[in-house]
Design goal:
- This protein is an alpha/beta fold.
- It is 47% helix and 13% strand.
- Strands 8-7-6-9-10-11 form a six-stranded parallel sheet.
- The protein starts with a strand and ends with a helix.
- The structure holds iron/sulfur cluster (2 copies).
- One iron/sulfur cluster binds next to loops.
């Protein structure tokens, strides 16, 4: 196996990358290799769908499969090797169907179908051993000695950005929002990767094109979530448990949460969101359920302790799953793209097993003293007070906005983000998005006038809100986004964060601070390109970075 797609990848003097028998996340070598093969077959599927689309022919099942298949390969999503053998067979079936679709469309247009190269003609073996023997043909570094590290790094950036786009687009799709341009962009990128490009420029262009596609995917997800559950409102969320039977729902899937709330209605079971699903409480149609009792726990890397302490069943709806411990292995369920060998998987949204488990388990024996936090400052809430915000900026009450966004993780150095929030001067506003905020979202940052100084805009899945707010504020002040008194302090961990970064770059946002480490797949030459073209900088020391941001804005 070789994998360096996330921030926690193994690093040594020889370089970075999880190899050997297991990755830092616990992904075993067989699963990692099978994921490579799945992505390779998906490249072939993407090639045919891309060519068919150019002739006006599409296959919705193939399009949707690509989103789901890519989502399963994100960090901390699916660790079940047997599941990948099934997915590879499914990908090959759809690829062969897409080939026939393309050939029919070409003949109908009086054209001779192209003989597509590479992944289009790869024939996957029918069993796990055969597939593992083929994994070398699908490995990201297979021709590193020929094309060089910069090309491998950029192909990786495209592939990992693509995974993020697919994850967002899948979330939107399950709620009925699809955009043909996202499928077109995904298939365009797969067609390019399948051609094993050797030049830097087309890969850089593709990375930015994926950033633009990701903006559409995030817009679709925003439309899906607000269309299904209403517009998020500032909301007080209880973060301490109440007495009674309990279910914990983790990940990001609002549809699964909604189905669980329906399945538990009038059953005397309280439903808690786990840290990552916190924004769910701000949606009117979800918060209307009185038994949506609160948010429990923090970011994903703390789940082994938090899940062990939770006295009911746990449902992992999307990401980020880490190795289930014996103390809760028997009461954790997976859903959607998530998988772990031996865990019970919920198919077709039937959560009745989870309800039974909740009734059989003890639940919380008593109320814990009530504590709440305020969330729900999505674009509508923030833009609803835009006039107050603008006045406060003009009156000098708000000197600067810091958007502290992105993932949390287990690696050292992440206390930078809580230090940053704590050190930010009192006349600055902190906007948060993503898991990094769990390090400080229970601190009291006070207010500026009537505005809380900490405005939580949601999870990584809500990054669209932050971009809309930045764009609208820039319009209101009559400047570009880069001229706003706004600095972006981004922590990354996995591939959705890579996609959001590409979106920021594609939109021309400059001077993003990125940490806690730069992605291992970006070579020094590629980092230089990002520094020169986009002003990307690594994080340093919180106080000094704040001073530098304020000085630049002055
Ligand atoms: S997903 Fe991250 S931790 Fe897991 S094997 Fe890949 S690089 Fe390593
Ligand atoms: S912010 Fe990052 S770590 Fe948190 S859920 Fe989103 S992708 Fe995962």
């Amino acid at each position: 196996m070789f994998c360096y797609q996330c921030e926690q990848t193994f690093r040594s003097d020889e370089g970075a990358g999880c190899a050997g028998t297991k990755g830092m996340c616990g992904k075993d070598a067989a699963t990692a290799d099978l994921q490579d093969v799945l992505l390779h077959v998906c490249e072939g599927l993407g090639q045919y769908l891309h060519h068919a689309r150019a002739l006006g022919a599409t296959d919705a099942e193939g399009d949707r499969f690509l989103l789901f298949a890519f989502f399963t390969t994100l960090t901390n999503v699916n660790f079940n090797a047997a599941r990948f053998v099934q997915l590879i067979a499914e990908a090959a079936r759809l690829r062969d169907r897409a080939r026939a679709l393309y050939e029919r469309a070409a003949r109908a247009a009086a054209k001779i179908p192209e003989n597509l190269p590479g992944a289009a003609v790869f024939v996957p073996a029918s069993d796990m051993n055969g597939l593992l023997a083929q994994a070398g043909e699908a490995a990201i570094r297979k021709d590193a000695a020929i094309v060089g590290e910069d090309v491998i790094g950029l192909r990786s950036l495209v592939l990992y950005g693509l995974k993020g786009v697919c994850a967002y687009a899948h979330h939107a799709r399950v709620l009925g929002e699809e955009r043909p341009e996202i499928y077109a962009a995904v298939e365009h990128a797969l067609d390019l990767l399948a051609r094993e490009p050797k030049d830097i420029e087309p890969l850089l262009e593709e990375a930015l094109a994926l950033g633009r596609a990701n903006f559409v995917a995030m817009e679709a997800l925003d439309a899906a979530n607000t269309g299904a559950f209403g517009t998020p409102q500032p909301t007080q969320v209880r973060v301490t448990p109440v007495k009674g039977k309990a279910i914990l729902v983790s990940g990001h899937d609002l549809k699964d949460l909604h189905e669980i709330l329906e399945a538990t209605k009038d059953k005397g079971i309280n439903v808690y969101t786990h840290g990552e699903l916190l924004p769910a409480h701000a949606y009117p149609k979800l918060k209307a359920y009185p038994h949506l009792a609160g948010n429990y726990g923090g970011a994903w890397q703390d789940q082994q302790k938090e899940f062990a302490d939770f006295p009911g069943p746990i449902v992992m709806t999307s990401n980020c799953l880490i190795e289930p411990q014996a103390r809760y292995r028997g009461r954790i369920f997976t859903a959607g793209p998530v998988g772990w060998a031996g865990l019970r998987h919920i198919a077709e949204g039937d959560f009745s097993q989870v309800v039974q488990a909740a009734l059989a388990l003890p639940g919380f024996p008593e109320d814990v003293e009530e504590k709440t936090i305020t969330i729900g400052f999505g674009r509508t809430a923030v833009l609803g007070v835009a006039d107050k915000v603008i006045e406060a900026v003009k009156a000098g009450q708000i000197r600067h906005f810091f958007l502290v966004g992105g993932c949390d993780g287990a690696a050292p150095g992440r206390n930078y983000y809580s230090d940053f929030a704590d050190e930010a001067p009192d006349d600055t506003v902190i906007l948060t998005i993503g898991c990094g905020k769990y390090r400080f979202n229970k601190h009291d940052f006070g207010t500026i006038g009537e505005l809380p100084r900490l405005l939580d805009m949601g999870q990584c899945n809500d990054a669209y809100s932050a971009l809309v707010v930045a764009t609208k504020l820039a319009e209101a002040f009559g400047v570009g986004v880069n001229e706003l008194p706004l600095s972006l302090i981004v922590s990354w961990f996995e591939q959705k964060a890579a996609a959001v970064l590409l979106t920021l770059l594609a939109l021309g946002v400059r001077n993003v601070r990125l940490g806690p480490t730069l992605p291992a797949f970006l070579t020094p030459a590629l980092v230089n390109v990002l520094v020169e073209k986009f002003g990307i900088q690594p994080i340093g020391e919180a106080k000094a970075d704040i001073a530098a941001a304020l000085a630049r804005a002055a």
